[in-house]
């Protein structure tokens, strides 16, 4: 079976499914266009496509590259027939590929349902045409898609499955700054996100520190390349400029950073669920141009953009997504939480309620069981998906 991921988040979502397939279904060979996590999980790599990602207008330059990739994938599948294709997120890139593979007799099982409920409900007809099943990461998506004639199942979210070793996290954070309050700064996994948001994050922390002089912060970069890019964006060389006083750079240790902090300011994405997992309030940001902000108001239909708010169906944490302003309102939202113990505790309780909706589901185990059924030619209609989840939870 073939996995295709176009972004680091897709690489992260697919890797546990691949590892589960290798462990429990040795007759299924996972091959992939993706990233390093998929390779480490045991997929036979056909190409690296998920080391970085693009969104919005910046992604327009990738159109020709994506088309060339699709031609390459289709030619490979013609020579090496596959049973199942699992496109992972990135509908703008994966939908056209699925549309070309399905007529070749390939079953299409999407991991991460496209967020049509947020911006494009009219595209549901295309989903019905090119997908055999959607594996949804958010609780409400199952009913949304089923009510529109799409086979779909909520499988849980990989960020919220498993347990955390807090003793290990304490060891990782032993050398983090000791000041208080503690602020975690997360600039995103895509290079474009780091470029757009690095200075905004530091400006917001500077305002916090002027109001709370003992405050400290860490920047957790998703990888070393993004750590260097962060330093370059704020005015230094690639080698690196010293960060402002009270700010320390770390790489890759998001869970340790969340455990250490009192509050996070984070580029909108899956990391907001990393924060919710540990009941740590987060201020979501996503800096874009004013033109894109105005466009989002016309296109986006969902009232919220940050995942904890989307799941809760109400605003429980501040969000500035998309955003074209300065750091003042962002810092103000963080300070309001940091200086109000009652509101801080209420927010933490509400985040715990959000994560409770995901309890008891192992998305990797469920997803692997579904694609194994599809690979064997068994039914993967709604009733079959319900049965798979019941068996995996039992």
Question: How would you summarize the topology of this molecule?
Answer:
Elements: E1 2-5, H1 8-24, E2 31-34, H2 36-41, E3 44-48, H3 63-79, E4 84-88, H4 91-101, E5 107-111, H5 116-119, H6 124-130, E6 133-136, H7 141-146, E7 152-154, H8 166-172, E8 182-186, H9 191-211, E9 216-221, H10 224-233, E10 247-251, H11 254-260, E11 263-267, H12 271-277, E12 282-287, H13 290-299, H14 307-312, E13 319-323, H15 328-338, H16 341-356, H17 363-375, H18 382-393
Helix pairs in contact: 1-17, 3-4, 8-11, 9-10, 9-15, 17-18
Description:
- The protein is built from 18 helices and 13 strands.
- Mean pLDDT is 93; it is low at 54-59.
- Strand 6, helix 7 (141-146) and strand 7 (152-154) form a beta-alpha-beta unit.
- The chain has helices spanning 8-24, 36-41, 63-79, 91-101, 116-119, 124-130, 141-146, 166-172, 191-211, 224-233, 254-260, 271-277, 290-299, 307-312, 328-338, 341-356, 363-375, 382-393, and strands at residues 2-5, 31-34, 44-48, 84-88, 107-111, 133-136, 152-154, 182-186, 216-221, 247-251, 263-267, 282-287, 319-323.
- It folds into two domains: 2-161 and 360-393, Rossmann fold (3-Layer(aba) Sandwich), CATH 3.40.50.2000; 166-356, Glycogen Phosphorylase B (Rossmann fold), CATH 3.40.50.2000.
- The strands form two sheets. Strands 3-2-1-4-5-6-7 form a seven-stranded parallel β-sheet, with helices on both faces. The protein has a six-stranded parallel β-sheet with strand order 10-9-8-11-12-13, sandwiched between helices.
- The longest helix has 21 residues, at 191-211.
- The protein has 394 residues and is of the alpha/beta class.
């Amino acid at each position: 079976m073939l996995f295709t991921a176009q972004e680091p988040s897709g690489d992260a979502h697919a890797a546990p499914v691949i590892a589960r397939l290798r462990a429990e279904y040795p007759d299924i060979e996972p091959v992939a266009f993706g990233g390093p996590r998929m390779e480490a999980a045991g997929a036979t790599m056909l190409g690296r496509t998920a080391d970085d990602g693009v969104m919005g207008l910046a992604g327009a330059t990738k159109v020709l590259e994506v088309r060339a990739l699709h031609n390459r994938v289709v030619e490979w599948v013609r020579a090496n027939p596959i049973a199942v294709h699992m496109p992972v997120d990135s509908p703008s890139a994966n939908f056209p590929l699925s549309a070309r593979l399905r007529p070749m007799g390939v079953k299409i099982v999407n991991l991460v349902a496209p967020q049509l409920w947020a911006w494009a409900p009219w595209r549901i007809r295309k989903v019905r045409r090119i997908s055999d099943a959607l594996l949804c990461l958010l609780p409400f998506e199952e009913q949304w898609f089923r009510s529109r004639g799409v086979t779909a199942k909520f499988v849980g979210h990989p960020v919220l499955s498993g347990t955390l070793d807090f003793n290990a996290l304490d060891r990782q954070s032993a050398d983090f700054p000791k000041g208080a309050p503690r602020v975690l700064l997360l600039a995103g996994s895509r290079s474009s996100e780091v470029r757009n948001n690095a200075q905004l994050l530091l400006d917001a922390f500077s305002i916090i520190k002027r109001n709370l002089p003992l405050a400290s912060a860490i920047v957790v970069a998703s990888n070393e390349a993004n750590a260097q890019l962060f330093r370059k964006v704020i005015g230094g060389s690639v080698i690196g400029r010293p960060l402002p006083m009270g700010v320390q750079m770390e790489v890759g240790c998001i869970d340790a950073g969340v455990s250490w902090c009192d509050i996070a300011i984070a580029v909108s994405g899956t990391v907001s669920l990393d924060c919710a997992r540990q009941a740590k309030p987060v201020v979501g940001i996503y800096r874009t141009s004013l033109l894109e902000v105005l466009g989002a108001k016309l296109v986006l239909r969902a009232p919220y953009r940050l995942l904890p708010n989307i799941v809760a169906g109400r605003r429980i944490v501040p969000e500035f997504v998309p955003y074209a302003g300065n750091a003042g309102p962002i810092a103000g939202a963080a300070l309001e939480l940091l200086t109000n113990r009652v509101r801080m505790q209420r927010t933490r309780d509400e985040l715990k309620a959000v994560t409770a909706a995901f309890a008891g589901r192992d998305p990797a185990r469920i997803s692997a069981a579904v694609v194994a059924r599809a690979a064997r030619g068994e039914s993967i209609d709604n009733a079959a998906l319900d049965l798979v989840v019941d068996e995996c939870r039992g």
